[in-house]
Amino acid sequence: MLDKKLVEKVIDKALSNGADFAEIFVEDTYNSRIQFNDGKTKQNVIGKDYGAGVRVFYGETAIYAYTNDLSEKSLLSAAEAVSKAAKGNNIIKPIDLTKMEFENIHPISIPNNTVAKSDKIDFMRKVNAASRNYNDNISQVDINFTERIQKVMIANSEGLWAEDSRNYTRVGVTSIASSGNEKQSAGVGPGGHIGYEFINSLNPVELGEQTAKIAAIMLKADYAPSGKFPVVIDNGFGGVIFHEACGHSLETTAIAKGASVFCGKMDQQIANPVVTALDDGTLPNAWGSENIDDEGMPTQKTILIQDGILKSYMVDKMGSIKTGYARTGSGRRQSYKFAPASRMRNTYIANGTNKLEDIISSVDYGIYAKKMGGGSVMPGTGNFNFAVSEGYIIRNGKIAEPVRGATLIGNGADALMKISMIGNNLEQAQGMCGSVSGSIPTNVGQPAIKIDEILVGGRK
Questions:
Q1: Close Cβ partners of 357 (under 8 Å, ≥ 6 residues apart)
Q2: What is the pTM of this model?
Q3: Are strands 227-233 and 365-378 parallel, antiparallel or unpaired?
Q4: What's the CA gap between 68 and 14, in Å, rounded?
Q5: End-to-end Cα, the chain, rounded Å
Q6: Is the model more confident about 91 or about 175?
Q7: What is the mean pLDDT of the chain?
Q8: At CB < 8 A and 24+ separation, what contacts does 296-302 make?
Q9: Does 425 have pLDDT greater than 80?
Q10: Which residues contact 143 (CB under 8 A, 6 or more apart)?
């Protein structure tokens, strides 16, 4: 992507004021988004994102600059800017950049930019028709098809030279059911680090009917009760609570600042012994997977919690310097406009041994959160509240009537200790995670879990 001699010159310039470490990240990204609603294509946007970022370390201080001009003059100007931001005592040594070889664990059969726009729109038309035909109350269907082909190059003063190409594909479907002034929506957003073959594997009729069914059920549901109850959270996007309330607190972005409830808890029990949780960047073609992270380190499978015991944080290069923990290939960023930080990849609670029906039957009265929605978290404390997008009452060990408007309110560390049963139906779901280094693709996931008691906000 850039000439090797130019890269070496940029790194030398970045080190020229005694920095301990210098790095350049170069990106060439193709983005495409098609928005389809009201039975029509409403937006078709194609763009390129092209630029580079230069980063230096002075001890535990990182300085970053970026440019969308990849001329030698502009790159050296960025390198000079970061070099002059501080002064160190490091002596510049000759750099021998060696290209890193690694296995591509995310093979692509059909790059998205080779597929005709008409094929993508035809797929969305089928989803739209299936949703609208499923129920007369479906008043709107919003469908988004997004694709991203990102080519990156990372080089640094330690001699690293790594290049990779990443192909992301995702379709989002939201169906809205209306009756008078009442509206309820339901959505899904399957995706992967994969080509258009992923779309070919999806059934557009099932996508449309799935979202329409949930929206129609919730439209006629009564309001949820409020109080403290046992709650069963089903698989897939149910893992968003662990991601938000616990996952971010296990990143060295928070740990290094002392802004996490899990600081100083390594090798201590932080969850019920039935809980094992992982962050795995090696899952083939998974939405949150990579071959290498955005610092050029090969990705890996990291056990965060094993049998309730904290075993690892998610660690980037600067996080390792600040905390002393080994890197986990977790340095990620949205684009060249962001310095990398420790971030999640595919973060999930591992399978347990219980069947979903056995977990449900263990509850006399409680809430079954079949699908979770959005929410908010205070990272320093782990306090959270999350909406239940599809919920049901559990009565006498059986799933009973649907309820809407339920909110789960609690604390991540407390909830981990109150998980008493874990199912054997692990599933993952896709999302975009925002943090200090921008918005990145991540998977959340879990099997069904039972939390013995949690505060439920509702209208009854």
A1: none
A2: 0.96
A3: parallel
A4: 18
A5: 60
A6: 175
A7: 96
A8: 296/100, 296/154, 296/155, 296/156, 296/160, 296/162, 297/327, 297/329, 297/331, 298/102, 298/329, 299/329, 299/345, 300/328, 300/329, 302/278, 302/328, 302/329, 302/330
A9: yes
A10: 35, 36, 37, 124, 127, 128, 171, 172, 173, 174
